[in-house]
């Protein structure tokens, strides 16, 4: 292989273990099965140290550290202190001191916006949840949740279904009223597509989801579809955690993502050297749940999405399906290859680039 890659342990387990896949692997497989193979089967990592990833980790760690212990009134001060501690060692490659100062102000403004918009409420809920006797970790970062689905592996000798485990990390969970809410910080809202603006499954969310899997339609929406599958896995993992913690007041579970690096929400006053921003958490439960399944189960579920989660995870574990890959090729080449870190070594992509017309 050429390119700046390192090999790490691939995630495919030995045949003796229950198959396991991360929700990140499910998303990668939806984008491109070959890309999943490079990243998750071969364990080729691309040295993804882009500033956005590092900033997200800084914020995520500072906020979770502050949430973990203390009182509600000092949450913002604690989060800013934790952030300052880490910032001293943060070596992002910025081109000037002024830019570094600006980046720091942006991230501090984001922490203040988080505390104002949902942080204070969630800290109150978290400490009340603990006070009620919940005995178990509720704060990450990367608090592991696991969703278990029963799947038949296409490559297995028998067709008996066996457990397939899907790992989906969240950053913290709180009991809010009668809902157990899982929260995940994400860089931006770009992957959400119409999910950001829809409060119901019925309509164009259901239609686009179906269109992605319909071989007679040219729809290709891997990011939106992956986000719905992630919601299904997170809610299933939250239900398991809720039951393990005996949170009997939590009748339903909800999954919320909080974009924290959306630069278009910034306002900058260069004369006063002030930066302000705002946050808009997105509750993905609403566009995910369908009322038919909810009526049958009284839980936030969607049978269509849950079935697809099982099928996509099973297909990813089974390996590249060349026929399915070829049928998607035009869309993958147009939408995914241009930003794929494996393009420099991908034979499929390279051969398509040097092929000549006629
Ligand atoms: S370059 Fe294109 S075909 Fe190759 S792994 Fe990346 S997305 Fe897939």
Descriptive account of the structure:
- This is PD-(D/E)XK nuclease family protein.
- 46% of the residues lie in helices and 16% in strands.
- It is of the alpha+beta class and 358 residues long.
- It has one domain (6-354).
- The longest helix has 35 residues, at 97-131.
- The radius of gyration is 22 Å and the shape is globular.
- Iron/sulfur cluster binds at residues 32, 34-35, 38, 332, 336-337, 340, 342-343, 346, 348-349.
Summarize the structure in short:
By secondary structure, the chain is α+β, with helices and mostly antiparallel strands. The chain is 46% helix and 16% strand.
Task: Write the topology of this structure.
Layout: E1 6-7, E2 20-22, H1 23-31, H2 33-41, E3 44-45, H3 51-68, H4 75-87, H5 97-131, E4 139-151, E5 162-176, E6 179-186, H6 204-213, H7 222-244, E7 252-259, E8 267-269, E9 274-276, E10 282-283, H8 285-288, H9 291-297, H10 303-318, H11 322-335, H12 347-354
Parallel strand pairs: 2-5, 6-7
Antiparallel strand pairs: 1-3, 4-5, 5-6, 7-10, 8-9
Bound molecules: iron/sulfur cluster.
What would the average pLDDT be, to the nearest integer?
87
**What would you call the structural class?**
alpha+beta
- The total strand number stands at 10
**Bound chemical compounds:** iron/sulfur cluster
Protein name: PD-(D/E)XK nuclease family protein
């Amino acid at each position: 292989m050429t390119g700046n890659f390192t090999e790490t342990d691939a995630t495919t387990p030995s045949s003796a273990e229950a198959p396991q896949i991360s929700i990140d692997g499910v998303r990668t497989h939806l984008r491109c099965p070959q890309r999943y193979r490079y990243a998750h089967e071969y364990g080729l990592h691309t040295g993804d140290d882009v500033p956005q990833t590092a900033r997200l980790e800084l914020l995520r760690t500072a906020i979770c550290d502050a949430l973990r212990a203390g009182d509600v009134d000092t949450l913002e001060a604690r989060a800013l202190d934790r952030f300052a501690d880490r910032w001293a060692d943060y070596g992002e490659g910025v081109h000037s001191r002024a830019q570094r100062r600006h980046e720091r102000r942006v991230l501090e403004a984001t922490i203040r916006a988080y505390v104002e918009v949902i942080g204070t409420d969630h800290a109150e809920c978290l400490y009340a949840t603990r006070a009620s006797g919940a005995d178990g970790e509720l704060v990450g970062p990367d608090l592991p949740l696991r969703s278990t689905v029963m799947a038949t592996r296409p490559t297995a000798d028998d067709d008996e279904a066996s457990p397939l485990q899907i790992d989906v990390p969240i950053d913290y969970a709180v009991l809010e009223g009668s809902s157990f809410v899982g929260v995940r910080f994400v860089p931006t809202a770009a992957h959400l597509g119409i999910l950001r603006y829809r409060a119901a499954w019925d309509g164009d969310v259901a239609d686009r989801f179906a269109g992605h899997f319909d071989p007679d339609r040219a729809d290709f929406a891997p990011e939106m579809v992956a986000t719905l599958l992630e919601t299904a896995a997170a809610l299933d993992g939250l239900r398991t955690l809720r039951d393990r913690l005996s949170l009997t007041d939590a009748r339903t579970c909800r999954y919320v993502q909080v974009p924290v690096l959306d630069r278009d929400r910034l306002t900058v006053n260069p004369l006063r050297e002030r930066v302000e921003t705002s946050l808009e958490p997105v509750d993905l439960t609403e566009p995910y749940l369908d009322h038919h399944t909810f009526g049958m189960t009284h839980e936030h579920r969607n049978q269509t999405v849950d079935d697809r989660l099982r099928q996509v995870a099973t297909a990813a574990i089974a390996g590249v399906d060349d026929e399915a890959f070829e049928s998607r090729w035009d869309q993958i080449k147009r939408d995914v290859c241009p930003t794929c870190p494996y393009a420099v070594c991908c034979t499929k992509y390279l051969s398509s680039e040097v092929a000549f017309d006629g």
